[in-house]
Amino acid sequence: MTPTASITKTKTTEESKFIRDLKKKIRRQISRGETGAVRQSLQKLQKLKPRDPELFSLFAEVLLAENNPDKAEKVLLEGLKRHGETFTLLYNLGRVDERKGEYLNAYDLYRRAELQAPTDQLKKQAQKTILSTREKISGGKEFHQDSYKITLHGNRQPVELDYKLPRLAARKRILDALLAHLDTGSRHVMELECAEGIIARNLADHGYLVRAVAPTPHAALKGIGLEFPEKFRRDITIPPEYAYMQLDETNADRLQETDVVMLLPESLEWYRRRGIESCANILACLARKARRQFFFYLPKPNTDTKLTSEEENHLLQALRPYTLNGEEPLLCLEHKGRHLYRIDRDKTVKANRDKILPRGVAAACSEAQVFEVEVDKCRDFNGFAYPHWGWNHFVALIEQLKEYPELDYKDTVLKKFYNGFAPANMQELLFPQEKEPLPPLNQGWASMPWREGNHFFARERPTTRPGG
Q: Which candidate among 14, 83, 220, 374 keeps its CA 20 to 30 Å from the CA of 168?
């Protein structure tokens, strides 16, 4: 090393240390409320490193300390526009929304910040903030004939999210095919065009670490929205990480490599809007990002939108260079024009649905939240059994609907059950023959271990279905 190079390297090291120390000093000044001093320090930092993305965050922190969240928001949005998503920009923008009472927006920003955290310490900081913010959000469900609505309360205005049951059923069909072909040795999964997040959430329940990417913020919110009304999921399952972007050739190449990549659009219009040649390039790029498996889905055609056999074949041929032996992708699902294809990128891939779900003792040390148990060992909340030798109101309803598919709800065995079986407390439920009071069971309803709630004992029984 020449003397000049040595001097240059020493100077660069000293400058980097000076900038790090200056940033620490600025944050101390912000915490102490030294407005004048902090602005002088920021001007000095701006001269030394004018293109540092952290400048925007530091300026925003000063504005927040001065109780000026609107200006802080403008500064942070400009920083995101210039530098893209960074931890400090997203995290501080979340603080701005939390200050404004927009907890849903803040929750989304904190989750995105966690994905960008450069250190474990910052990641833990984001996770702690995510949990505290989630406590400020609530949600409820409203059921209809072929849909249900979730209303989230966490912003200044409630957010209503509609979920169509036929669409969810179509995603469930894809999920079943995926579980039959998914590599049991993979750990990380990325689902692109994730719709309502049903597939991502179920894969997370099966023990996979899932990143779900939606095309719009509202679509991502529909996935996140499912977390709040569901009583069983709070602090139990690791939920999917949600993000959103409009997938094209450019940003497809920016995605990180992961074990399994899935492209699962809901409509063939997704392919039409981009053009077949561009879609072929996107598929090839996504296949390169998959270390072990790549799946892609061609939805059901309709009168307005369909792919010719030549166009579909062109997409398949674009993937042949990325299969193990140059073969065509494997068809995993074919149902009324819907096609799900799979290619393996690693010869050690093991697809076995029976091995995805843990059984017996293996469930205790598995990260999966669903596992297999013999049906004769299962009971519902009321203590009813599911096999033929027992009785369960939902099993009885299914059997009845098999015989009378057009039966109206008011004439079902389920309606009769709800009308006739209405214990007033837990003692009447569990010990109907016991005449002597058994406090506190005769006073209300004990919470089950998996149930969410601040009180172990409730006076009113939790409803399972509105109107049931």
A: 374
The tokens for 87 are: 């931890």
Q: List the one residue out of 148, 152, 108 whose CA is nearest residue 130.
A: 108
pLDDT, residue 276, reads 94
Residue at token pair 């893209």: 84
Coil, helix or strand at residue 208 = coil
CB 150 within 8 A of CB 223: no
Evaluate whether 288 touches 323 at the Cβ level (below 8 Å). no
- What 8-state DSSP symbol labels residue 77? H
pLDDT, position 2: 55
What pLDDT digit, counting tens, does each position of 433-457 carry? 888 988 888 888 766 655 544 445 5
pLDDT in tens, 112-139: 888 788 898 998 999 899 888 888 888 7
Structure token digits, residue 115:
């994905």
* CA 260 – CA 258 distance, rounded (Å): 6
- Spans of the chain below 70 pLDDT: 1-12, 229-238, 353-356, 359-367, 446-468
DSSP 285-332: HHHHHEEEEEEEEE----SS----HHHHHHHHHHHGGGSTTSPPPEEE
Helix (H) or strand (E) holding 161: strand 159-164
**Would you call the peptide bond into 158 cis, given omega within 30 degrees of 0 as the criterion?**
no
Query: Cα–chain-centroid distance for residue 57?
Result: 27
pTM reported for the whole predicted model? 0.72
- Give CA–CA dist 153/68, Å, rounded: 25
Which amino acid type is present at position 316? L
Q: Is 153 helix (H, G, I), strand (E, B) or coil?
A: strand
Q: How far is CA 164 from the centre of its chain?
A: 18
**DSSP secondary structure string for all residues of 346-364:** STT--B-HHHHS-BGGGGG
